[in-house]
Amino acid sequence: MQDNIIVRTITRILIPFIQLYGLYVIMHGDSGPGGGFQGGVILGSSIILYVIVFGVDQGRKIIPEKLSDTLNSIGVLIYAGIGLICMIFGGKYLEYNILPLGSAHFASHIGMLGIEIGVGITVAAVMITIFFETARQER
Amino acid sequence: MIDLILLLFLVICAIAAVHMKDLLSATMILTAYSLIMALVWTNLNAVDVAFTEASVGAGITTVLLIAALSRTKRREED
Fold this sequence. Notes:
The complex is a heterodimer of chains A (139) and B (78). Chain A has 139 residues and is mainly α. Chain A has helices spanning 5-27, 36-54, 56-62, 65-88, 104-135. Chain B contains three helices and no strands. In chain B, helix 1 (2-19) packs antiparallel against helix 2 (23-43) and helix 2 (23-43) runs antiparallel to helix 3.
């Protein structure tokens, strides 16, 4: 598909909008439908669209194997770290409203947003990794 | 009324996906199944589940199944 100019141009135009929508879904996960998982899948599918159109080798230049493996772990660490910070301040695991950020409502909002961001990063990186491992041609 | 029509399409898609010999057609019918399932979830006021069904079932699963199909044969053998 690399020599088809219509597909390439439309992909270049469309990818930023897909990623913006994925970030919107992650950010509004606590106040509406959507959340970290769905937004992460949408973010990952934008990269998968790029790889389908421009090929696996070009895609590995944008997302090297080391970067996707690192992002896998960073998301899990954000999730576990926020839970452990809540325990350090004297609450239970993931009890956000104990955090010292002013009101309990605001602390709960910030904690939930951090969890959504961590889940989104991990899900996007895992989807990209699964697709790369499935699409790789053995020679 | 609309949910009966959707469930009828759902059953037709499920049976067709199982009995199809051409695996690429079966994948596409499975995508249609996921999309109708997302409509059923929306009809049941479960918007969050419908969102997940539409993005994972109709998006990622199709891409992964086609990527797996590219490494094997397109037709099923008896």
